[in-house]
Amino acid sequence: MSTLTDEDRTALLKLARSVITAELIKGSAIERPLKISSALAEKRGCFVTLHIKGSLRGCIGTIEPVKPLISGVEDNALNAAFRDPRFPPLKREELSEIDLEVSVLTVPRILEHTDGEDLKEKLRPGIHGVILMNGLRSSTFLPQVWSQLPDKQLFLEHLCQKGGMQKTCWKDKDTVVKIYEAEYFSE
Questions:
Q1: pTM: predicted TM-score of the whole model, two decimal places
Q2: CA-derived radius of gyration, the chain
Q3: Can you tell me whether residue 15 is helix, strand or coil?
Q4: Which domain-ending residue is among 39, 70, 105?
């Protein structure tokens, strides 16, 4: 995986803000980088998160590396602003209030564990993003969520509930646990 430079990070944040602005203010230009680095062209999972005054206002992403990072950030910025089912679409008057964060993910890998206690032992708060999959249901928390839920058991219980699963699903032997890491940066 290519390393993001400061220029890449700045370009992704400008792109995210400009696509949201262009959607809300007709005639606004989308600020795509003139030169696309190898890191921006690489297929990577990514999330775009919007906050207003420290509160979540939208967060949408793709976990798997299915498209070039630059395309993923553009798509996910629009989705986070206008298609996150937890929030109404962003309004023009909110544009100046939002803070944007971009998270660029490593490829998820299965975390082998023997039981719930072993799982808790292997998780690294603040480092690991976690995906839980049970049957047709799944959910993920980015590594940043550990700052709000530092207790491993509470983190896992909330993650189960986010996916519409029983809050103890993380102890179920049929639940697949994957982890990933994220580089994240904001305006």
A1: 0.89
A2: 17
A3: helix
A4: 105
